[in-house]
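Check out a protein:
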Amino acid sequence: MDREAKKEAFRKYLESSGVLDALTKVLVSLYEESDKPSAAVEFIKQKLGGPSLSEHEKLQAEKMDLQRKYDELLAAHRDACKELEELRNLKHEEDGKEMVDNNDTKEM
């Protein structure tokens, strides 16, 4: 496929998927703003449904907090599993000693 055909196929894709219409509406709303925003890219992102910079920072902080809590819970879970395994091993050892002790008394 030659370069012009690729361009045309991509343009048709953008048009059929609604991208051109969405971008056109956003650019028109930016053009019609009486007080032009100082951060035009942020304006466009917001109009397209993306989070604002402050919302993004808030979400990042929340994500880091949740990751920290997850790590703490995971460590506690691993510790509890380790303790459970140790208790099971201890129980098996005690059961084995009782069996040996019972066999010794029966033999006498």
